[in-house]
């Protein structure tokens, strides 16, 4: 029997937040900032929720313009809408 020449595209999904990386970034950007123990996890969660909302809004923008591919313009328009809603 011959082995298959195709390579699996499946990647391992990390189940944990990159806490060390997040803490290092916070220390570099804002050394005077003091976060409580789970503060970095809340920031990571907020980032994930923002990216998910950005993807959904971008997909809707692409669908409205009858485009099958999400383009840079769709993402930028979605980011403007999301950031306006979060501020006001």
Automatic annotation (TrEMBL):
Gene3D superfamilies reported for this sequence: Histone, subunit A
Subcellular location: Chromosome, Centromere, Kinetochore; Nucleus
Keywords associated with the record: Cell cycle, Cell division, Centromere, Chromosome, DNA-binding, Kinetochore, Mitosis, Nucleus
Pfam families in the cross-refs: CENP-W
GO molecular function, one term: DNA binding
BP terms from Gene Ontology: cell division; chromosome segregation; kinetochore assembly; mitotic cell cycle
Protein name listed in UniProt: Centromere protein W
Organism: Callorhinus ursinus (Northern fur seal)
